[in-house]
């Protein structure tokens, strides 16, 4: 079976993890701090905080901004459940919008239709690794009419004075938009290092801070370190040298990354641009070369004049194909020994959101794209021969 996206675990990774295990320090410590510093340098963010998942990072930032009951957060209907679940955790309402047919990303004209004085945050998702149009999103939240509608209900919201743009960049570490990398394109960007993502730490995530000048991003980083570790004003490392007494300044969460995770991340980040992304682009190019001149298929967009994807998910679509036909095609592909996937089931199709009253008929493009979508295997150790097998399995099955 050709797997869908196994992690790249080689001797270098194993050696770095063993180094951490033997160092006597396995939880949040020097390697996590170093990984944070390197991620900030890499992404161009003002500060980066590593956590145990992207989900934790999204929720932490919604809570920092004071999002709660009575508030609305705009999310695309086409995403993984984490994007909307964190809004629910905070007691606020996810307001879903439909997506663009070509990019699978949030569109500005859909934002205009759902904006209200309760809107506190927009969470764009860079589907498959292709960044949203951040210039347009930033321009939108800064437009006088939209700013006037914004109704702050705490000092932080007042200080920002507008809707916060919180990017779910779980797919798009290293993607480039108009010469800048994700992490530096909007207020706050959250990356995922879950096992299937481009850069993994087994589980993990990071919050990249890039708030405007009237915020001290370094001070906020320090506060978030505390808020993500039970509100304790000293972490385990700081307490480890006899400096035992600490205070708790808020009922914080427990979301910290361990040095074991960070050691995997450090090796992965070192070779990310020159090795990982080069290989992933090669796989995307291979698939596009194989499918683009065959009318049965629609290939994903992953490069334009201004934008370069991080080549996370190859979102192949089958032309004129119903959901049932797509499911049958997947059964056939699987029987030929190739693991494929669907990214994603739009949220209104899932029981929890359906039961809250969200209707898939309100998101026709999300449904249309989902119905005919098949995500193909993309991972570092995928060989040319395996790619050929994938292409043949898909073409024969269709
Ligand atoms: C994977 C994923 C997440 C969640 O990441 P975790 O690190 O597993 O919390 C959030 N949003 C999207 C779009 C994802 O694909």
Q: What features would you describe in this structure?
A:
The relative contact order is 0.16. This protein has 16 helices and 13 strands. The protein is 40% helix and 13% strand. The protein has helices at 11-23, 30-43, 54-64, 82-89, 108-114, 134-142, 144-149, 155-160, 217-227, 236-239, 259-270, 272-291, 323-335, 351-355, 364-371, 384-397; strands at 47-51, 72-76, 93-97, 119-122, 164-168, 176-177, 180-181, 188-192, 205-209, 297-298, 307-308, 314-318, 373-376. A hairpin with a 2-residue loop joins strand 6 (176-177) and strand 7 (180-181). The protein has two domains: 11-269, 3-Layer(aba) Sandwich (Aspartate Aminotransferase, domain 2), CATH 3.40.640.10; 273-397, Aspartate Aminotransferase, domain 1, CATH 3.90.1150.10. It has 398 residues and is of the alpha/beta class.
CATH architectural group of the largest domain:
3-Layer(aba) Sandwich
Biggest sheet strand line-up: 1-9-8-5-4-2-3
Q: Main β-sheet, in a few words?
A: 7 strands, mixed
The count of strands amounts to: 13
Rg from Cα: 21 Å
Overall geometric form: globular
Terminus-to-terminus distance? 19 Å
Task: Indicate how many domains the architecture comprises.
Answer: 2
Helicity range: 40-55%
CATH homologous superfamily grouping of the largest domain: Type I PLP-dependent aspartate aminotransferase-like (Major domain)
Average pLDDT over all residues? 97
Task: Give a nutshell description of this structure.
The chain is of the alpha/beta class and 398 residues long. Helix content is 40%, strand content 13%.
């Amino acid at each position: 079976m050709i797997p869908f996206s196994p992690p790249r675990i080689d001797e270098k990774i194993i050696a770095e993890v063993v180094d951490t295990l033997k160092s006597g320090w396995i939880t949040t410590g020097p390697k996590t701090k170093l990984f944070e510093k390197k991620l900030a340098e890499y992404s161009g963010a003002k500060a980066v905080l590593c956590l145990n998942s992207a989900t934790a990072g999204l929720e932490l930032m919604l809570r920092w901004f004071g999002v709660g009951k009575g508030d609305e957060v705009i999310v695309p209907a086409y995403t993984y459940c984490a994007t909307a679940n964190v809004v629910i955790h905070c007691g606020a309402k996810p307001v879903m919008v439909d997506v663009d047919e070509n990019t699978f990303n949030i569109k500005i004209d859909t934002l205009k239709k759902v904006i209200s004085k309760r809107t506190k945050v927009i969470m764009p998702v860079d589907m498959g690794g292709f960044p949203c149009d951040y210039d347009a999103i930033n321009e939108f939240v800064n437009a006088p009419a939209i700013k006037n509608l914004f109704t702050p209900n705490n000092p932080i919201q007042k200080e920002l004075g507008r809707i916060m743009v919180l990017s779910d960049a779980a797919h798009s570490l290293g993607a480039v938009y108009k010469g800048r990398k994700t992490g530096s394109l909007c207020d706050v960007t959250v990356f995922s290092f879950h096992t299937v993502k481009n850069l993994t730490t087994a589980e993990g995530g990071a919050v990249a801070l890039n708030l405007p000048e009237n915020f001290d991003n370094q001070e906020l980083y320090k506060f978030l370190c505390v808020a993500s570790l039970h509100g304790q004003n000293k972490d385990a490392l700081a307490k480890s040298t006899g400096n035992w007494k600490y205070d708790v300044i808020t009922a914080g969460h427990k979301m910290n990354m361990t040095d074991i995770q960070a050691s995997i991340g450090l090796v992965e980040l070192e070779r990310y641009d020159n090795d990982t992304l080069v290989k992933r682009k090669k796989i995307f190019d291979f698939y596009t070369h194989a499918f683009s001149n065959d009318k049965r298929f629609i290939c994903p967009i992953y490069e334009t004049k201004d934008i370069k994807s991080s080549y996370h998910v190859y979102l192949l679509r089958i032309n004129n194909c119903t959901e049932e036909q797509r499911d049958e095609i997947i059964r056939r592909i699987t029987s030929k020994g190739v693991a494929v996937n669907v990214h994603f089931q739009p949220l209104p199709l899932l029981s929890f959101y359906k039961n809250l009253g969200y209707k898939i008929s309100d998101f026709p493009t999300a449904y249309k794209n989902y119905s005919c979508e098949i995500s193909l295997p993309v991972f570092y150790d995928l060989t040319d021969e395996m790619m050929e097998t994938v292409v043949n399995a898909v073409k024969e099955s269709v």
